[in-house]
Amino acid sequence: MLNLMLNGKKVVASAETQILKVAVKNGDSLVVIDQTTGKSPNKLITKKVKKDLQIFEEGSDKASVVLEDYYAEGNVVQLGGVSQSGSMITYSVADGGLTLTPAATAEAATAASVTAGSGFLGSTTSYVLGGLAIIGGGVAVAAGSGSGNGSSTNNGSDINNGNGSGTSSTTVSGTVTAGPLTAGHQLSVKIYQADGTTLLGEATVSETGTFSVNIGTYTGAIIAKVVDAGAGNDFTDETTGVAKDLNATLTAVAVVAGGTVTLNINPVTTIAAIEAGLNADGTGSIASSAAATAANVAVATAFGLADITTTTPITTLDNTYVLADGMSEGEKYGAVLAALSGADKNNGGDMQATIRAVTNGLSGTTFDDSAQSEIIAGANSADANV
Predict the structure, then answer these.
(1) Contact 226, 269 (CB under 8 A)
(2) Among candidates 176, 173, 172, which has minimal Cα distance to 188?
(3) What would the DSSP string read from start to end of 220-272?
């Protein structure tokens, strides 16, 4: 039996016919996957009926999928899936009822690399159904490309305490997300200048994950680090539902120029901070405001998110994570974090190992096959437990 995703949303079969029928239009992106294996079939049979494309599983004389208006004039519709190795594949469709064969199969898993601007989960990469597709029973993460991180861009001095400059005081506020935080955690946030050693301020993290730090009149790039003062449990893991101690250094980078700045901190922002120049353990420095901004934009684009620093994630364990009305940016972000949580489970509960694997597989706005597989396998683990 097949599952079908249209632009990241799960298509529900007719209760009467059990056929997945949907009208498509130019620019739509679809993913076909076998419900049993969680992967896409290497071979399907197609039949053109007027303007519609019918898709049959091998050996069946009944269409499993009907794409209405697939052949309508001007329509260009992308059809893809996930190979046995977890890589993205693209189906090539021929007219006249010919066989539908993946352009890239499990034996050629290097295909379908992500291009800048498309987003790992964007229009050309809704093909990750087997991965970020049905977390919470519904929707693949993220239509559209990442468009920026929302931070102030300041290409001036990154070490400027603002004395005598008239710059207004800056307050950095946000939410720490590893999963929902548990009562009694011992987390705090420290904010540093771009050099990574000059402390601007610190604050304890509330039981709901929020924090707020006044950093004075400093302007330029900042580094935020989560500090865990104890060995007790800090958060509830999205995949396992078990309370865990934080075993990774979570960081984030941004640019400030006065006023109130939102800076959320989680594994995704940590990947961006490492891309900006920090070490995985949170030590080191970032070279400039431009480096911070570029890293945040690149990682947002790679994950298909609009903004990774100012959008507050809504985790899959939150009662406001509801897919029936479509995915908000916060829910998309939460689904990405759930996939990384699933990867943690696959890595023996080691969050730092997941961050390292995904970061090592990121080049600019593109994840390599290894990182894609890491995320997709993680999402499959998360989906089985959400």
Answers:
(1) no
(2) 176
(3) EEEEEEEEE-SSS--EE-TTT--EE---S--EEEEEE-SEEEE--BSHHHHHH
Predicted confidence (pLDDT) per residue in 209-233, tens digit = 999 999 999 999 999 999 999 999 9
Confidence of residue 88 (pLDDT cuts 50, 70, 90): low
State the pLDDT confidence band at 23, using cuts at 50, 70 and 90. very high
DSSP assignment string, 263-326: --BSHHHHHHHHHHT--TTS-S--S-HHHHHHHHHHHHHHHT-S-SSSSPP--TTSTT---TT-
Instruction: Spell out the residues 6+ positions from residue 16 whose beta carbon is closer than 8 angstroms to its own.
Output: none
CA 188, 194, 199 angle in degrees (round to 5)? 40
Strand partners, 244: 235
248/254 Cα distance (integer angstroms): 20
Q: What percent of the chain has pLDDT over 70?
A: 75
Report the pLDDT value the prediction gives residue 163, as an integer from 0 to 100: 42
- Distance between CA atoms of residues 151 and 170, nearest Å: 13
Angstrom distances, CA of residue 366 to CA of 68, 116, 244, 311, 374? 33, 7, 31, 21, 14
Distance in angstroms (rounded) separating the CA atoms of residues 308 and 293: 11
| Ranges of H-type helices in the chain | 267-276, 289-303, 329-346, 351-360, 369-385
Q: Could you give the CA distance from residue 283 to residue 125 in angstroms, rounded to a whole number?
A: 34
Q: For 72, list phi and psi in degrees, rounded to 5.
A: -65, 145
Rounded percentage of the chain residues whose pLDDT exceeds 90? 49
The pairing of strands 9-10 and 20-23 is unpaired
- Predicted confidence at residue 305, as pLDDT, reads 85
What DSSP character marks residue 106?
A: G
What angle (nearest 5°) sits at the alpha carbon of residue 221, between those of residues 216 and 224? 75
Whether pLDDT at 13 is above 70: yes
pLDDT band with cut points at 50, 70 and 90 for residue 38:
low
Reduced to 3 DSSP states, what percent helix, strand and coil does the chain have, rounded to the nearest 5? 20, 25, 50
At 355-375, the pLDDT tens digits run 999 999 998 888 887 888 788
